[in-house]
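name: query_chain
kind: protein
chains: 1
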Amino acid sequence: MRIIGGAAGWAVRQPAGGRCQPSGIYPRITNAMTVVAFSLARFTPADLSEFYEIARPRMERGLWAGVARQTSAEGDQLLVTFPHLDRPVFRFERDRRGTYTLWFHDRQGWHSIGSGSTSTDCLSIWRTRPARVAPPAQVREAY
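structure:
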């Protein structure tokens, strides 16, 4: 068997010697092919896009020195380093259950600062929020 390209998050497994003939813009699905999902332990292209939308401006301003990716069977991680530090300060990960967690490392170890079932939920701590405007003061009537 070999794996051929598929939509984001999916792969198509095809037996050796099997053929996949395109029909229009979609491949013809036959009983010679099986569609399998990618591992839950991997970031999806949408997850990476979400993260880099947050990371790019911070890197351009020099707040973050870099981002490194580590992938294993246990999960996928993005490690954020700061200028003048030799260790990662933030870690964004997706474990093999598909859970997202955001970690902060101080000198005493890793501490969870966000988690969620989607990357958007997990990274919401880094999203800019509109400033809160105080409601107008109510005039109190003199009694």
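note: Residues 45-126 form one domain.
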